[in-house]
Design brief:
The protein has helices at about 30-35, 45-50; strands at about 20-25, 60-65. The protein has about 70 residues and is an alpha+beta fold. The chain starts with about 20 loop residues before the first strand and ends with a strand.
Length: about 70
Amino acid sequence: MPNEIINSYGLFDAPVRAREKERVTLTQTDIERQLEAGAFLMSREEAIAAGFLNPLEEPDAVIVDIAREEA
């Protein structure tokens, strides 16, 4: 079939993750707004125990820089 869609990512159609982590800058107000909207914090160990993370693979993650807000 000439129009057949091929698996362009490889085994199990999973994309290869970039080794470089994206940098995201947040302010204290940004963090507080996300917490008020229902976000939560937990350690890696807590996330593994709760089943949110697989201990055998590296999850997609970013490096967060906290910006100081000008008064």
